[in-house]
Specification:
Blueprint: H1 2-27, E1 36-54, E2 61-82, E3 85-97, E4 105-107, E5 112-130, E6 135-152, E7 155-173, E8 178-197, E9 203-224
Length: 229
């Protein structure tokens, strides 16, 4: 009787241990190492929404100027990893080709013209991701920069706007060094005051609020050099 109980107990412990190991294998996530310094290039499409207001023009200005166009540029960043959690910081700079043909408006009988073109844009972002095998979904947010060129009947110029951004995407590690990315970014820029001066030295002020949505892809090369912590 004691011998039978001993055999049964041994079998139970053996099956229990095997079952625990199998469960651990299933639950334990396969975290790929995404840590390291990296550089890359990005390209995509941007949709801009620009509100312009002014009481200084012969016809009061209250216009919504929409447009879209190609955006492309470079990026640089670094990832730090703890188990499957990835922390990162990244900066990018690019050029937006959403040009004047999208933003030309005739305002009233006076024929005042306001043409606004997007130029350089960039981001400084913090990123938080989760390493799930070869894929890393992430969220990101930080500061945004946008350059706007404006042209009116009364003069022209270039102004810069700063704002904030938030977005999400996914990185795919094709190899230890090569990463492909797809992401969405929403940018919101604070109201900025623009002005133009005509031939009679008359100054006209107008305010511009801008926001944009960007869908883009990136190709990234990770140099490593940062260990997991």
């Amino acid at each position: 009787m004691i011998k039978k109980l001993s055999v049964a107990l041994a079998l139970a412990v053996s099956f229990g241990t095997a079952g625990y190991a199998s469960a651990a294998d299933i639950v334990e996530p396969a975290c790929r190492d995404f840590s390291g310094f990296y550089i890359g290039a990005h390209a995509g499409w941007l949709w801009a929404n620009i509100d312009a207001k002014s009481n200084d023009f012969p016809t009061n200005l209250n216009e919504n100027l929409n447009g879209d166009g190609f955006v492309g540029g470079g990026l640089v960043g670094a990832n730090f990893q703890s188990d499957c959690i990835v922390f990162g910081v990244e900066g990018d700079l690019g050029w937006v080709d959403a040009n004047g043909s999208h933003f030309i408006n005739d305002l009233g009988e006076a024929g005042d013209r306001l043409n606004v073109d997007t130029g350089m844009n960039g981001h400084i972002r913090a990123r938080l991701g989760w390493s799930a095998g070869d894929f890393m979904p992430f969220i990101a947010g930080g500061a945004s920069y946008l350059e706007l060129d404006h042209d009116t009947n009364f003069g022209n110029g270039t102004e810069s706007q700063w704002g904030w951004n938030i977005g999400a995407g996914i990185d795919w590690a094709v190899s230890d060094s090569l990463i492909l990315r797809a992401e969405y970014i929403y940018d919101d820029f604070s109201s900025a005051n623009f002005n133009v001066t005509d031939d009679t030295d008359t100054r006209r002020d107008f305010d511009i609020d801008a926001n944009s949505s960007t869908v883009r892809a990136a190709i990234i090369w990770n140099f490593g050099g940062l260990s997991e912590f």
